[in-house]
Design brief:
Blueprint (H helix, E strand, L loop, with lengths): L6 E2 L19 E5 L2 E7 L4 H10 L7 H5 L4 H5 L3 E6 L2 E7 L33 E2 L8 E3 L5 E6 L7 E5 L12 E2 L3 E6 L4 E9 L2 E3 L14 E5 L2 E6 L7 E5 L9 E2 L1 E3 L2 E8 L2 E9 L2 E3 L7 E3 L5 E7 L1 E8 L7 E5 L12 E2 L3 E8 L2 E9 L2 E3 L7 E4 L2 E8 L3 E6 L7 E5 L9 E2 L1 E2 L3 E6 L4 E9 L2 E3 L7 E2 L7 E6 L1
Length: 474
């Protein structure tokens, strides 16, 4: 398997941990038994519940009311209170009440980046980003690397570059002295990055960078991956860009005229992004992009699909009238993504953002797992097929040939006890997973028994004195 980035396994000895597997919050929107199931954990914050309710399609989410025990907003939207057990409240709604609205072209996959708050020094995912320098000290070279520059400091004996991209190392990132300052070239992935410089052992920020994190005053740099362009409009005085990625703020992103073309370079998160241009106060779609969609207010927007192409295939079922696929990548909307019938079955290519997803096929209203995929995941007791898009690590467990099931649980899936199911190839159990940069904790669950990875001698202790295996993703 090809890995994007280097995998470094490290040993960390910590006597006390705050990780408590059973204390994980269980806010979920699930599909099961022809019902849409909404699980709300009342220990969650108002913001977390509002995000969940928006995913569930509520036009007027009342998180404050729900925390006080008022479920009127949910009942008015067609949800029924099914069960309350401890902190978890379950609501459900029949799928046949939701209707079907298949989008044949383009296929819209969610661009929601979720509630990933990141951790100090390791920034959370963002929908978009634009750099802001007084004097440009960081820029991308044609060779594909990013150059960091510290002007001056000619009297310094040693200068280091440290950031999330090298795990904030105080040994790596040695910068080269030039006649005007110090430089270092780094291979960065598109997205948001945090960094600082270390001059003769003294940490310092980038005084030419106006973007600073809320913690530790780390400088922020966005590695760009997309350029919006609009040809013509030579006499236009001002052209701005707005879209789903910036909450349709028509004033924030101003295009620049270069060589007769209006353009703006930025970082754009993978997924489906709707957008329009505002030319001297008049909204227009992108004339160079034929993909459009009508929003709830009747506006026509241009659409971008960024991500990995995944081909879903279901063999057989020649007598079926319709086959859909639904999963975490489209918030489990059952009538949205329609497969095309072939001589052997059904198929469809989709562009999906990097991540780990559960999915199922819907054959004439019946939900089934993928018969060709032996890897599964569970959520709320529902078994779904599992797929990792842009997987960058393969978990392996050698032996255990007589085991009936092997699952993987870790910090990347909230230590879900059902985990991701590994498949056995006659020698070892494996599963490919997409992991975010930074520290990851994990365990295998063999026939219900939790074990650390016997192939990884490095671990850190937990509060149960049973240990968690540790690895770092760069």
């Amino acid at each position: 398997m090809k890995r994007s980035g280097h995998i470094v396994i490290v040993f960390v000895a910590i006597c006390c941990m705050t990780l408590h597997v059973m204390a994980q919050k269980r806010n979920s929107l699930l599909i099961g038994n022809d019902k849409l199931v909404l699980l709300i954990d009342t220990r969650s914050s108002k913001t977390e519940i509002e995000q969940l309710l928006k995913k569930a399609g509520l036009k007027s989410p009342d998180a404050a009311g729900i925390l006080k025990g008022d479920f009127t907003a949910l009942k008015n939207d067609g949800w029924t209170l099914a069960e309350k057990q401890g902190n978890i409240i379950e609501f459900n709604r029949p799928l046949n009440e939701l209707g079907q609205n298949p989008q044949l072209h383009p296929y819209l996959i969610t661009s929601d980046v979720g509630n990933n708050d990141g951790s100090p020094g390791y920034p959370a995912e963002v929908n978009f980003g634009i750099n802001n320098f007084n004097k440009v000290t960081v820029h991308d070279l044609p060779t594909g690397v990013t150059r960091f520059f510290v002007p001056g400091y000619q009297q310094s004996k040693r200068m280091l570059l440290s950031g999330d991209f090298n795990n904030w190392s105080t040994l790596k990132g040695i910068m080269t002295k030039t006649d005007s300052g110090w430089i270092a070239d780094v291979k960065l992935k598109p997205g948001k990055h945090e960094y600082k410089f270390i001059a003769d052992g003294r940490w310092m920020g980038d005084r030419n960078n106006n973007l600073v994190s809320d913690h530790d005053d780390n400088a922020i740099y966005y590695r760009y991956n997309y350029t919006f362009k609009l040809s013509g409009y030579a006499n236009a005085r001002k052209i701005t860009l707005a879209g789903s990625f910036n909450n349709w703020d028509a004033n924030a992103i101003v295009l620049e005229k270069k060589g007769g073309i209006w353009q703006k370079q930025l970082y754009l998160h993978e997924g489906t992004q709707a957008y329009r241009f505002l030319v001297d106060g008049k909204w227009i779609t992108d004339p160079a992009n034929p993909n459009t969609i009508k929003d709830a207010d009747g506006n026509i927007n241009s659409v971008l699909n960024l991500g990995e192409t995944v081909v879903f295939t279901l063999d057989g079922y020649q007598n079926a009238k319709k086959v859909y696929v639904a999963g975490g990548f489209n918030n489990w909307k059952p009538g949205e993504i329609l497969l095309t019938k072939t001589k052997k079955g059904w198929t469809l290519p989709l562009i999906i953002p990097a991540g780990n997803y559960g999915y199922k096929f819907i054959v004439d209203g019946n939900w089934i797992t993928d018969p060709k995929n032996m890897r599964y995941m569970q959520d709320g007791g529902i078994v779904n097929s599992f797929i990792a898009v842009k997987a960058n690590y393969t978990f392996k467990l050698t032996g255990f040939a007589n085991a009936k099931s092997v699952r993987l649980a870790g910090s990347f899936n909230n230590f879900n006890q059902f985990g991701y199911t590994l498949a056995f190839n006659g020698k070892e159990w494996t599963v490919d997973v997409n992991l975010k940069p930074g520290k990851q904790l994990y365990k295998f669950i063999v026939d219900g028994k939790w074990i650390i990875d016997p192939g990884n001698k490095l671990y850190e202790q937990n509060q149960y004195n049973s240990g968690n295996s540790v690895l770092w993703i760069e």
